[in-house]
Fold each of these.
Amino acid sequence: MTTLVPVTYKGGVYRHDEIMDLIDDLGGYIVQKHVMAQDVVLQSFVPRDDIEMIRRIAKPLAGEVVEAPLVGTEIAVVSPSLEIHHLPHISCDIAEYLRRSGAKTNMVGLARGFGKRIANLNDEERDVINEHDLAVYALGNFEECIRQKFPALRREIHVPIVVTGAPDRETLMQVIDPPVEGYVGGIGRIMHRFKRPEELGKLDELVDEVSRALDARRDALAKDPLSVFPPRLMAIIEEQIHEVSMLTHPTPVTAQMEGLRVKLPYDSYADDVRSLAVAEGVTVGDIADVTPSRMRNYILIRIKPFSETRILV
Amino acid sequence: MPPLNYFVVESPDEVGRVAYERIAGDVLQDLDLIKVIDRLHIYVDPKVPIFVAAGLLRHMPRAIRIADFANVNRGENEIVLDIGDETYLAPLLQKLWIIYGKEHVDQPDRFTVVLPVGMAGDEDLDRLVVADPSETLYKDVIYALQYIAPEGFKVRRQYIREGKFYYVASEDTLPTDIVETMVVPLFEKMGVTL
């Protein structure tokens, strides 16, 4: 079986459809397409052996192909508050940087996340964060505050967590108990945009830390693969349910590591999604849980592993 | 940062101290207050928890009068105000409407205001106070400190008078003697008595 690797293609609008067809023909998947004026960014999965060929074909079009470790993941950037008088928030820079590495990021500004004694997480915030592949917690400057408030902010969060804060990595590891999946020190509350080289270096460190945390999850998935590869199911949904093409969201169907978020109302479309045929005699309902998402009225699809369904599409 | 004559941030947490030095610098720069503030001393202790900022203003800007931004030309039948700088035009019109009544204040174009002669208050027209920037300056300074203070510190006490200001904030209720115990010593360090 060919291994699909996550890559980002950056190029011009001119003849980019040829690249899209090429990726499709090679058996790859395009997870996200951004058209920004003259530029096109395609977040996609392509067979490892064919990357060179895509590079060669894209060369006359001035397109470049770079590995993007976070393609096909949805990450929550959690900030204790997104108050207007504390802008610019570092979570904005963090979210933007993770996006450049291919992730789909959502900002989660907590309603009552500030203050070390009074910080808490409500059920909606908890459920929304748990719908992601990973949560990045952008915490503040004081060790003492992180120690006191973090247990409240992580309560009942099951997804991997990467914490950022002003104290160095070792201190963060020390004050956070039980341990989380990743730590990046030296990013606290900063009242300016990231622009210095050492600040940008911290963001690269964050991307490494996030991809390391996700790799651990990917390894576990490789041992018991999902019944269908999420981008594949995404392609089927986009092809079969034509209402998806009429949505104005940047990502009408968002790929996650173990599922999909479909931005159609659950009440009217859940049954259509469940009865959708993935292959001969196999419907989405057979291989996945189709549940209402806590994010607006969207549909959340959780794909079941092979060990549970005995089906591999 | 800044050409402040005195700028100190104190905290038992060294990492937090450095971070707050940056934050204070960024905020004062963003809000263009570096030239206004002369001395500033900040003390943050997340364990108490308490945030105290105390300082002195350099000088207060004086009140803006009509003569500062317009020429007053007195004619036989009318007074013509020739506006040089539009910044304070809106508050000027507000004041004139109150004094003369809206129907007597004519503004043929952006830079000209025509008033009737012979109404009360004519003589001192040049000296009429249109705006007092120090009013908004007070607000700006307090806003900046609110901006600098940690996000969770919602309980606060503020003071700004005669060139001295302080801002105390905490997550918990502030003790009644907080000014005597925390603020006065900071002013003493700057060589000033509150």
Amino acid sequence: MTRYDLIVIGAGPAGLSAAAEAAGAGLRVAVFDENAKPGGQLFKQIHKFFGAKEHKAKIRGVKIGAELLAEAEKRGAEVFLNSPVAGLYKEREILVRRGEGVGHYKGDAIIVATGAQENMPAFAGWTLPGVMGAGAAQTLMHLHRVKPGKRVLMLGSGNVGLVVGFQLRQAGCELAAVLDAAPRIGGYGVHAAKLARTGVPFYLSHSIVRAWGTDKVTGVVAGEVDGGWNFIPGREKQFEVDTVCIAAGLAPATQLLKMAGCAMRAAGADWLPVCSAVGETSLPGVYAAGDVSGIEEASSAMIEGRLAGGAAARKLGFIGPDEYEERRQVLLAALASLREGMFAPQKRGQISAQTDEGIDLSQTLLRKGYLEEGEVGKYPGVKPAAGIHPVIECTQNIPCNPCRDACPQGCIKVTGGIAALPEYDDRAGCAGCGLCVAVCPGQAIFLLNEDAGDGLAEVTAPYEFLPLPQKGELGAALARSGEKLCPAEVVRVKLAPAFDRTALVTFRVPRDFAMRARFWQKEAAA
Amino acid sequence: MRLTNHPILGPAAPGREVVFFLDGVAATGLEGEPLAAALKAAGVAVHRYTKKHRRPRGLFCAVGRCTDCVMVVNGRPNVRVCVTPLEEGMRVATQYGAGEGVK
Amino acid sequence: MSSERTRDFGRYVAAADDDVIICRCEEVAKGEIRRAVRDGLFTVHEVRRLLRCGMGLCQGNTCARLVRGIIARELGVAADSLVEATGRAPARPLEMRVFAREQGL
């Protein structure tokens, strides 16, 4: 039996943050994780995070993971990998597998940060090899550098489905379609839009009837569902795919909390631990932080981890009441700002018809994943202007503002809360640097110069695929819907260190297509 | 099926190629990668056949939670190959049922 | 739930998707769970003791929520009104020889 001031279970965003916070206050901290690598899902999250500076916005999860791990270790937390926690008991004792045996450890405080697990819908053929969780595909691609398949069907249009769908495209897989049984896209519209413009079709109110194949999946029959989630006869579609990814939502991985006897409460289809504002459960000294206490983004998990780590430090007397309270207020405020906007956890299940600004939400965005050309102008980020200027196609209230901070000219305003729609202020004068295009985690900003001479316009779009286009290369300009519009020549490709691997591709199209062309597609090799 | 380069992650770190045996046939993978990744890269989809209905199963969660990917590794059945690092000379076998006929 | 004991939920009627596997580890089909409920097993605990769904190698990590949903639908109640199965160690598969080897750390 080894004793620690604090034992953290799970070395993901919440666990590492908790360990860093507590170890920084002087606690002797041990972190146990079942995986061979720390970071939880962070090292799989290669997209730029939403939020504000204090939430590490515009930084990719991989980098946040590395920073967090370095911070926790520098402050003296011991991280034990390949160490699955098999038992948690109310006396704050854990049973851990260590190598070919088991060890017992006791903490004066315990923070459970075990994250989430994927919900799986059952359908005929879902046990066939080739049908897998979206998380599995992400793990294969980003941790192990192996493609999950050649041609993939994604079931689920929440942020996991949309983000992993895009990542499959980045890894060079074909994405046959994104399906969702719900009538609306569940994740951020910007995540859907960046997939739709690469030509991926969305089928809402559709689910999988069955997957077929003998020793592995070779195809899927999908069907349209009615309001009662029943398949409508005669509305089936077939997809020939070798892989099916399931992204049907996440559930808190609460097994250890339940085992210890923490009070649980029903919340929708899930059971969540009853927690205080800093994550303390009904068992004194046992805390829950991150997705295990309720599914949110990794940004929120990191703050929850720090709150719990600080609370444990206070409880054990490592920090005084004033210092604790001051820190607690800062963290609670940061957490509250991440819970602003229409995707906030407290608004789950509600349907917004309008933005906070009173603008109608795009129904096409919610049904098909893209904005109609005619409706783009309704949003404050889109204003006609002479010369080069940004077009900010950000149409939902998401807590995120790196575009504002990125613009050296002060052209972009996000006023009235972090989730307000960004507004383009044409008085400030865009210099065309493209930083806003590169930092936008939703890849929703484009630069437009509608008068590039010869009746042509130049569109600059973010590009995160390989191979990068070359200057002078001829390809096709695609519309927001992924529809092929016209041939388009690349005139510039910029990849500055500040862009963090988001290339800026500028291509030339006839002026009439300036407000339609949003993606440059390489022509298939002849 | 290996991702040697990636627009965000960059080129993959070179690994040491090692030989292992799948149902007695030599195959190669990268030392230390999960066995499941080596099998995926080699195009192997079926890890086992179930006990009751003799249906094929493969990789499903890839993080050690679902236990669907289990195989017989070095003579030991029910090994989650998604969290088992590949070692040189490893003997991996398709699992039938709970590991019947394991030698 | 005790009043449910005397309530008549009607007899089991076969459905098109009864063959769909719900518990992947123990290969328990949806129809088996539906029939068990109609036979009078109204809790997650009872159903899993009879059919073993959620008692395989993964300990219900994948199917627990599905099983609860099916029982709830058969009973016509909300899924969150059904208590989840008791959590027990080991939360991950551990061979007995490992379990028995105390590291003395």
